[in-house]
Design brief:
This protein has 202 residues and is of the alpha+beta class. The chain has one domain: Coagulation Factor XIII, Chain A, domain 1, CATH 2.70.50. Helices cover 16% and strands 29% of the residues. The chain is built from three helices and 13 strands. Strands 3, 6, 8, 9, 12 and 13 form a six-stranded mixed beta sheet that branches. Strands 2-1-7-11-10 form a five-stranded antiparallel beta sheet, with no helix packed on it. Strands 4-5 form a two-stranded antiparallel ribbon. A hairpin with a 3-residue loop joins β4 and β5. The longest helix is centred in the N-terminal third of the chain and has 15 residues. It is globular, with a radius of gyration of 16 Å.
């Protein structure tokens, strides 16, 4: 079974490596009724296709090595906009309205899988200071299907739900109650994903 899984992954990786595939959070659905969106989102991007242009242009690539080297901050970069600069993206999100964390501590999101290696499983973490520098692991309660970031789904909207760590208190942003949630997959060409801002304000 293990060998079969490795063979499947190898075949999928070869097949999909010719396509720069992506997945991004297109909605964070707040308990306060507000629907937020990911940093770097281009609202005019169509969501009914899978090609590089225009469908993949606002998906974030979030690589630890690029963060460590200073090439990007904690929320990575997009093909269209470059680095997701928090000092720009957070005020934009606040101006549009921040989705709130549920009373149960859950952050409910919609993941748009553009094409094959925008699949799951995803990992999520949270920065309670909202400065993109100190992320803590979140529990993913409802994940995106996939194997090592790969599946055959395209142009699909899929629920993604993650829970705040016990006792986590958001202290960033203009309201002093904002966190940044970051989710990304394990795709070899990525990782792909998004950062979103959420508030604990009631």
């Amino acid at each position: 079974m293990y060998s079969k899984s490795l063979l499947t992954l190898s075949v999928l990786s070869v097949c999909f490596s010719v396509v720069k595939s992506h997945g991004l959070i297109t909605g964070v659905n707040g308990a306060n009724g507000v629907t937020g969106q990911a940093f770097g989102t281009i609202e005019s991007t169509p969501r009914d296709g899978s090609g590089a242009k225009p469908f993949q242009q606002d998906t974030s690539i979030i690589r630890d090595r690029e963060i460590a080297s200073g090439k990007t901050g904690g929320c990575g970069r997009t093909p269209a906009g470059g680095e997701n600069v928090l000092s720009t993206e957070l005020p934009k999100a606040e101006s549009a309205g921040l989705a709130s964390v549920g009373a149960d501590g859950k952050v409910r999101m919609t993941l748009h899988q553009v094409n094959q290696d925008g699949a799951g499983p995803f990992t999520c973490d949270v920065d309670t200071n909202a400065d993109g520098k100190d992320f803590q692991k979140m529990k993913v309660d409802k994940n995106v299907p996939g194997f090592a970031g790969l599946s055959r789904a395209t142009a699909a909207d899929i629920p993604l739900v993650a829970s705040m760590p016990a006792g986590a208190k958001c202290t960033g942003g203009a309201d002093g109650q904002t966190c940044i949630v970051r989710c990304r997959n394990g795709a070899a060409a990525g990782p792909f994903g998004s950062c979103v801002a959420v508030t604990q304000a009631k």
